[in-house]
What we know:
Elements: H1 18-25, E1 29-32, H2 35-45, E2 54-55, H3 58-67, E3 83-84, H4 86-91, E4 99-104, E5 107-113, E6 116-118, H5 122-130, H6 138-144, E7 149-157, E8 162-163, H7 174-184, E9 188-194, H8 200-214, E10 224-232, H9 242-254, E11 263-269, H10 277-289, E12 294-297, H11 312-320, E13 327-330, E14 334-337, E15 342-345, E16 356-357, H12 360-369, H13 380-392, H14 402-407, E17 412-413
Parallel strand pairs: 1-4, 9-10, 9-12, 10-11, 12-13
Antiparallel strand pairs: 2-7, 3-7, 4-5, 5-7, 6-7, 8-17, 14-15, 14-16
Helix pairs in contact: 5-6, 9-13, 10-11
Amino acid sequence: xxxxxxxxxxxxxxxxxxxxxxxxxxxxxxxxxxxxxxxxxxxxxxxxxxxxxxxxxxxxxxxxxxxxxxxxxxxxxxxxxxxxxxxxxxxxxxxxxxxxxxxxxxxxxxxxxxxxxxxxxxxxxxxxxxxxxxxxxxxxxxxxxxxxxxxxxxxxxxxxxxxxxxxxxxxxxxxxxxxxxxxxxxxxxxxxxxxxxxxxxxxxxxxxxxxxxxxxxxxxxxxxxxxxxxxxxxxxxxxxxxxxxxxxxxxxxxxxxxxxxxxxxxxxxxxxxxxxxxxxxxxxxxxxxxxxxxxxxxxxxxxxxxxxxxxxxxxxxxxxxxxxxxxxxxxxxxxxxxxxxxxxxxxxxxxxxxxxxxxxxxxxxxxxxxxxxxxxxxxxxxxxxxxxxxxxxxxxxxxxxxxxxxxxxxxxxxxxx
Length: 417
């Protein structure tokens, strides 16, 4: 039976076995790609980005920028692009109608069918997607760094990525993940989008969303789950290291704050664009493909700096709810109230003058100090694991440093064919 994903389209894995591919790639031009493109090849090939079957052509890019839809009318919010310089196009002899091999770290990864070579104004693209053309916005900066031309066309993965420890148990493609949900008996699953280690505010964000998602269903047996889908991609100095993100999220289950009956952690390869409302829409499409029925959205979802209002993502999703196959679950801030003596929501507690919010700066300073905080801020098992990851994977720091960027074990590799 077909598995239906975003836009009502069947999820199809675009994967060819290496033995079959070897004869097809012998005489094809081989083009090296950077990590962002490799991440997106995986996203397309395994169906994370369904209904996309390749990198976008100009008609799709134009429609996404202007209408937040693909040319076929399916809602889509962020262009997925493969860029090359004019010099590279000439060097590799790339022409419309040709097929080429995309390589990662010198090993063949995918075949691309070149359907289109085009250019697009980057400033207008940035303004449409991010609501600003300010080069200080990380998404705009990424857009301005694209090379001269864009290559549109279908891709087929010919060499599956080898996922390295400790990430390997957490890479679960859409078709496999949907089977896991069925095995668990979950009839509703709510997504928690994250790129952080979890403090108790995050934990209660998940628990609140779980209650909302359960709704009117019978409570006699567990039939609703929370999926933590951690975003693993390009790292900037000062980010949490990837190992600590994925392992501490799963530690909430292992230490019993959730259980196998209602909690699961996986990862998706994606370089955050920090597009605020538009990235919220992208997350809805992504998690629909993963088989989820609900998606939690907190304050300033996928935002950065002061570019977006705290609930802009909520308002955007409300406008297009009829075009989505996933139910948004909205949440206000979770915080600590010393008067209540507990973590609570600003939508519940009225001791406003006493509220202690989980600011990123505060949490980072706690982690940097290395002194175990009260369990109402960090679960002790989670904090201990953050410190362990710093020693084991982060060269002494739980945050990305120059050492980490230079020496870390890659999340995945493409093996020789």
